[in-house]
Here is the input.
Amino acid sequence: MASSQFQPIQGMSDIAPPDVYIWQMLEARAREVFARYRFEEVRTPVLEKTALFTHSLGDTTDVVTKEMYSLEDRGGRKLSLRPEGTAGSVRYIASGAEETANARIYYMGPMFRCERPQAGRKRQFHQIGLEAVGAPNPLADAEVIALQINLLSAWGLEGAKIRLNTIGLPEERAAVLEGLREAIRPRLSELPEDAQQRFETNVLRLLDSKDPIVQEIIADVPSVTELLSDESRAYLDTVVETLRGLEIDVEIDTSLVRGLDYYVHTVWEVVHDGLGAQNALSGGGRYRIQIDNKTIDGVGFAMGVERMIAALEATGVTAEQFAPEPAVFLASLGETALKENLLLMQTLRQRGVACEMELTARKIKAQMKRANKFGAKTVIIRGDTELEKGIFVVKNMEEGTQQEVELPELMELLI
Ligand code: AMP
Here is the structure.
């Protein structure tokens, strides 16, 4: 590929054929599954007020403090490219009245995080996600997880696992955080500097740290579940039992806390072994977000499309498998036939048949070569003789046979 001074910036890429075919498949099948569960699409802006994200996601989270693409517009307003889809969705939900009280919405589109680009981490990546609004109910959480399982199988992914945990209610959070701090405090000075800072700002995030020193210290600390109330533990049990009833297996992972402040009760991740270090395909959880004097309770997830594709490719799926069917090719001999074929092509396209032709008069050999290159299975040849007789030569490229037909028969063959 020729290098250009205008290449996309690092961590962002063009998505073009053949790769885009797998994207189209994922999006189309997701829409089908969402429709069956009665979710409807909402498309929120990609650029929003920075305050929406700091307010909804919490101002101590990595996504907000380190990873947002933020800018000031000409009027001095502070804006950010959305790093995730829930904040915008919840803003939309809160803006409505009654009709959004039980909103079930989904979204798909680009998200932006200024992370160090590496395998599995892009700066523009894409998510397909949903939000189901409603008071905490373990059955609602299980329903959303069941939807996700259905989605994964509609996409043809084998071998994904769900890891589930609870982080309890906001009322309990202070006690949980204090319980964790108390257990960690005797060894605080052994923690690396950034972990010491987390100890103060977001001690939960120490639990899923990848740093071996932190992990060693955390190993002796009680799990969040142990620090929670019986009620919160019972909520988790009901989610797990409900899923079992739906024949869905999940694994409880007490180190799972997720990065954002708004979670309550159930949190989960979908992981896949085909992915390497960044093995999370999706994050999900129940949340409670205060916005515009309203409290939005909901449960949702966001699947990373790039990672989903990597997982599918690790299991042998290729984008080419989802390439569109090749078009019918119209070959013309002479200027008159070319014009007539243009009319025929327009008619066929209007009737739903994909077709193409050369728009300049060329030798039949060159046209057949092009038809072959496009993988056309059917070529319709017309020259002066065919025009005079009102017939079409239909060539079956796979079998190498050809036949002469009149218009009604041609239409029947193609439509
Ligand atoms: P999160 O909002 O961080 O829970 O992310 C949800 C999902 O989005 C993850 O499980 C990943 O599949 C995907 N994801 C998050 N960040 C990135 C990134 N920088 N590059 C690619 N995919 C990402």
Summary: The chain has a mean pLDDT of 93. The pocket of adenosine monophosphate is lined by residues 84, 113, 115, 121-122, 125, 127, 259, 280-283, 302, 304, 306-307 (CB under 6 Å). The chain has two domains: 4-169+229-320, 325-414.
